[in-house]
Amino acid sequence: MFFYIIEAEHISSPGQGTSMLIIQKYGGTSVANAERIMHVAHRIAKEYNNGNKIVVVLSAQGSLTDRLLQKAHEINPNASKRELDMLLTTGEQQSVALMAMAIHTLGLPAVSLNAVQIGLESTNQYGNARIKHIQTTRIKKELDQGNIVLVAGFQGINSLGDLTTLGRGASDTTAVALAAVLDADLCEICTDVDGVYTADPRVVPTAKKLKYISYDEMLEMACQVLANRAAEIAKHYNVKLIIRSSMTEEPGTEIGEVSKVEGSYVSGLAIDRDVAQVSVMGVKRLGAAYNIFSLLAKEEISVDIILQMPNTTVTDISFTVSKQDMDAALAILETNRESIGFNTVTHNSSLAKLSIVGAGMLTSPGVASTMFEALHENGIDIMLITTSEIKITVLIEDRHTEKAKLAVHDKFAHLM
Fold first, then answer.
1. Which residues on adjacent β-strands are paired with residue 39?
2. How far apart, in whole angstroms, are the C-alpha atoms of residue 72 and residue 77?
């Protein structure tokens, strides 16, 4: 697994007593308009007035990123990724500048900084760069001068001196990476939900908010409230992380070590509808799996569930990819049909992955059979199954997704 190169440099907490260094991140909906910006400014001011040092990472306002992409498409549908990054990074820069102005109206010192100014070095890949290193000199200087530091999320600077974007949801990644490099006491991801739930409460009315969840469970649940890359960094650097609402003072969900959630067999349920199945039928040659998946990897196509079904003379290989990668995967297979040696290839994009996740499942017999029972009782066929120590995933028809969510969640509700 790829981890970010972050050199941890301890930064002392301000003053005496319980003063802390706190990293906060606010998403686009939290700063969507002037009223919400002022609301967040008051939240930041409250922490500052409690004697804490504050670094705040902000996303672009509301749907601004999508609007900028639309404008780019109107001018040039084939715009280069470099120029798109130059355009898209302006969204976060607007947010931090406006937030600094809001905090100034409250009589408090604040400074807005972009990736260049804080020295957030990234790889050269435009559109989905990775963090290589973060300098701390400027941030520490501003904190020591008593400033609230506002950092533009989602962006870095590469070895060419160009601005890059870090992929969708990467303001979370920026915040957690800063918490790691600054050895912060706490990192709060403040969003439009008040924590992590056992399932989407908009779909499953009986979903419960979790007080704790482990790093591994958070990664497996693929929750929309935290980017996976952020969860990876938090786990690797043991960042104290809380997911909470930016709209209320309700306590959120703490993400930490497994020891805090050992009492739970099942912590939650996850659905992924961005899935397509590709089946390569009648493979006649040895080493076909290596051939197929090395070709896909070369084109940076990620594969999830894999099932190989050998017969006496031929083998069938089935796997899943994201829907956006399906056409590219099919094209690669057809182009290399002769070298792979197969009869036909089929595909199905009307599917979904349903997973149950829990750190306690490994020592709890019968979890899989209970899940399968819930699906069977509701007439839902399972097409593929994959398991790990803390997750069981089944592939089902997408049209059954809503019914499956409710059935499986209700079956495990007493264990959550």
1. none
2. 7
